[in-house]
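Module 6 notes. Inverse folding takes a fixed backbone as the condition and produces residue identities as the prediction. Think of it as a translation problem where the source language is geometry and the target language is the twenty amino acids. Below is one complete input and output pair. Work through it position by position during the lab.
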């Protein structure tokens, strides 16, 4: 059975973790410092990087560092993982959803302009599945309306946009190292920022609000979380980062084979490609209803052919929590269509070309007549 994803763990990762476990220092320490320096060099653009225990913590810390709180509004896409909106709720601010594009699944900048209001403080684009959102018009709009752009780049480590790595030009930008992502620290994430004020706040916010002066005196000037990354995760991250570009090249090659070989069918929507795409996932839409089936039955039929699939994601605004904010069916038709029709196909570096062909063949068979 081909899973929809699988982390790539080899001898380097195993010995890096073993070294830390044998060192006697398991919490945040020298490996965290080394991993942060390696990420700064990798992302480029003179950013400072701080690692945390998840992208969820990183996004929450980033919003707090921007002083987002009750009375504020944060614009987020209706199509993403729930964490994108949940972190806004945690700060006491109100999430304001916008629709996305069917092919890129990234937010629509014109839709952002339409929901701007006097309380809007932050816009949070998501680089869906590793394809960068169109950033120039968004930063332009943010500058005109004095907003901060907090990039949810949880799915985009290694993605480029206009020749620059995601993270090198934005501020602040949050990445995830969850096991399903293009590189992992088991659980983990980071914030890249070019603003020393944010970085100083993140230093505090990720560890109990503690600040130390040059003499080593400790103060707690504000609340802080317990969001630090352990050295075991950082050591794993160092080994993964060393081969991230190779892993992403492999993802890209497999994705392009998919795009060449997937059937062209009126009931199948293929994802957009892009020059700097890191292909964290390959998600299609299938019109199950028009095929006379359901997603569950379609997934089972693929599983019967050895193909595992995932669902990324149901539209966020339809979850019960967000219905309390007054959202409901019909508000964001594209996000809702994706939520109902999406299917994540297997994509991970250890897959072979023939695995891709198996998935394409199984899909063609299930789509049946109508395949061109
Ligand atoms: C778009 C997006 N944002 C945030 C997150 C949260 O990341 P983490 O699991 O590292 O907290 C994820 C994780 O899947 C994600 O896909």
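Target side of the pair, the amino acids:
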């Amino acid at each position: 059975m081909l899973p929809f994803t699988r982390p790539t763990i080899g001898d380097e990762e195993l010995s890096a973790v073993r070294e830390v476990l044998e060192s006697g220092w398991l919490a945040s320490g020298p490996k965290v410092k080394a991993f942060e320096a390696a990420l700064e060099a990798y992302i480029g653009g003179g950013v400072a990087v701080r690692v945390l225990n998840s992208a969820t913590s990183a996004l929450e810390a980033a919003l707090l560092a921007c002083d987002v709180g009750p009375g504020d509004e944060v614009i987020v896409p209706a199509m993403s993982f729930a964490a994108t909106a949940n972190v806004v709720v945690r700060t006491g601010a109100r999430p304001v959803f916008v629709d996305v594009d069917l092919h890129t699944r990234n937010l629509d900048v014109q839709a952002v302009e339409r929901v701007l209001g006097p309380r809007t403080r932050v816009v949070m684009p998501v680089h869906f599945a590793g394809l960068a959102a169109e950033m120039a018009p968004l930063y332009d709009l943010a500058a005109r309306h004095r907003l901060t752009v907090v990039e949810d780049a949880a799915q985009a480590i290694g993605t480029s946009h206009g020749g620059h790595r995601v993270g090198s030009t934005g501020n602040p930008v949050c990445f995830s190292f969850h096991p399903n992502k293009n590189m992992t620290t088991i659980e983990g994430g980071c914030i890249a920022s070019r603003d020393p004020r944010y970085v100083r706040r993140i230093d505090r916010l990720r560890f109990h609000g503690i600040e130390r002066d040059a003499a080593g005196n400790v103060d707690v000037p504000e609340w802080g979380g317990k969001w630090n990354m352990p050295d075991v995760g950082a050591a794993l991250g160092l080994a993964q980062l060393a081969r991230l570009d190779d892993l992403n090249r492999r993802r890209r090659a497999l994705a392009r084979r998919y795009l060449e070989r997937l059937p062209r069918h009126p009931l199948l929507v293929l994802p957009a490609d892009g020059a700097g795409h890191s292909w964290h996932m390959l998600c299609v839409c299938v019109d199950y209803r028009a095929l006379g089936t359901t997603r569950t039955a379609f997934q089972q039929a693929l599983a019967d052919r050895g193909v595992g699939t995932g669902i990324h994601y149901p539209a966020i605004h339809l979850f019960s929590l967000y219905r309390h904010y007054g959202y409901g069916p019909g508000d964001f038709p594209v996000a809702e269509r994706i939520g109902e029709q999406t299917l994540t196909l297997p994509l991970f570096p250890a897959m072979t070309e023939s695995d891709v062909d198996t998935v394409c063949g199984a899909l063609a068979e299930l789509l049946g007549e109508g395949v061109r």
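Reference fact for the lab report: The domain at 244-367 is CATH 3.90.1150.10 (Aspartate Aminotransferase, domain 1).
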